[in-house]
């Protein structure tokens, strides 16, 4: 797997990274054996950057990832987790909660340091507390070596960019905003990258929207967006291609020019992980992409901040 620099962190990140939210059974029930198989397959192919959070499956994802990484030499993979979000509507960026969260994450992940610690879904939390308490606490922990780099994650690109530059964070993870259907991260990512901040594009399948099975019931995309994506999936099927292949290849082949270091995809399936890895090596079908672009045009860049659906994250 090709690797690139993650901003100025010194981390060489594979262009495809694994998001472990799915190990928390947020899409479908996942056993420890499935978690082990998926993580082992990823590692065998150089996908050695793992992103997780206490919130995913309410700690289940961290526990499953920790179990799957047991016995794997610590220096052979990069571990990113988060602080600040602990439930669907539960944020706490206080010093105490930040410290406690990291202690608990370290125990669940079976490690004594975290490579990239990120403040989770910042737009929903108390930004004053984030700046005055969580970030200074994380910088202190960075001095002690418990965490190595500090980042932020979220959906609101303007806020991510503003805070990242003001607070001089090391990484920014945005999600569902550099995909076949939403391409708003590009401009922001290029500027962040130029400022030396490592940019991670999470959810290239837009949290299941760009899969044959379609979005989960909790997905916040509007019905019009979901219908357009279903039409794209049907088109891909007629052309004998899985929509997820085109969606992942779109994100991967355009990442470098946008200043995106890595694409963080989630799966709890060894078979899907293998497909994702193989798709990295195959070219994007430009003629098919053109047809998709025509179908997607009416809903391009229509995120749930623009046109909310009925899913959870649309409501603050
Ligand atoms: N605010 C944040 O910080 C934030 C928000 C969102 C995401 N993230 C990060 O980004 C990661 C990825 O996001 P995500 O998992 O939510 O969304 P995603 O990667 O866009 O999509 C995951 C969905 O796609 C399916 N899938 C994966 N590979 C597939 C394939 N080859 N064929 C068919 N289906 C496939 C998965 O099902 P299977 O398990 O069945 O393969 C799952 O249902 C997360 O794990 C997390 O680390 C961060």
TrEMBL record:
SUPFAM superfamilies xrefs: NAD(P)-linked oxidoreductase
Keywords on record: Oxidoreductase
EC nos: 1.1.1.107
GO CC terms of this entry: cytosol
Pfam families the record matches: Aldo_ket_red
Enzyme class, UniProt record, top EC level: oxidoreductase
Domain NADP-dependent oxidoreductase: 16-296
Molecular function in Gene Ontology: L-galactose dehydrogenase activity; pyridoxal 4-dehydrogenase activity
Xref: InterPro entries: AKR, LGALDH-like, NAD(P)_OxRdtase_dom_sf, NADP_OxRdtase_dom
Protein name: Aldo/keto reductase
């Amino acid at each position: 797997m090709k690797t690139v620099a993650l901003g100025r962190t010194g981390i060489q990140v594979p262009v495809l990274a694994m998001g472990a939210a799915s190990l928390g059974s947020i899409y479908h029930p996942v056993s420890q054996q499935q978690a082990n198989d998926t993580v082992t397959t990823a590692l065998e192919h150089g996908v050695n950057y793992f992103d997780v959070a206490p919130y995913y499956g309410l700690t289940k994802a961290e526990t499953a990832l920790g179990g799957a990484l047991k016995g794997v030499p610590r220096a052979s993979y990069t571990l990113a987790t988060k602080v600040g979000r602990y439930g669907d509507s539960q944020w706490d960026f206080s010093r105490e909660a930040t410290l406690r969260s990291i202690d608990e994450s370290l125990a669940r992940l079976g490690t004594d340091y975290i490579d990239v610690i990120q403040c989770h879904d910042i737009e929903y939390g108390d930004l004053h507390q984030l700046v005055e308490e969580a970030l200074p606490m994380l910088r202190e922990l960075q001095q002690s070596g418990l965490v190595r780099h500090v980042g932020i994650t979220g959906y609101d690109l303007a806020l991510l960019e503003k805070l990242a530059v003001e607070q001089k964070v090391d990484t920014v993870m945005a999600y569902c905003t550099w995909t076949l259907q939403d391409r708003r991260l590009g401009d922001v990512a290029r500027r962040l990258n130029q400022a030396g901040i490592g940019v991670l594009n999470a959810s290239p399948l837009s949290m299941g929207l760009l899969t044959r099975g379609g979005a989960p019931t909790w997905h916040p995309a509007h019905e019009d967006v979901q219908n357009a994506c279903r039409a794209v999936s049907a088109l891909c099927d007629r052309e004998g291609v899985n929509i997820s292949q085109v969606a992942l290849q779109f994100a991967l082949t355009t990442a470098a020019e946008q200043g995106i270091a890595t694409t963080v995809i989630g799966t709890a399936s060894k078979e899907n992980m293998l497909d994702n890895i193989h798709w990295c090596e195959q070219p994007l079908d430009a003629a098919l992409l053109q047809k998709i672009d025509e179908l997607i045009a009416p809903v391009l860049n229509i995120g749930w901040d623009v046109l909310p659906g009925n899913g959870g994250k649309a409501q603050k």
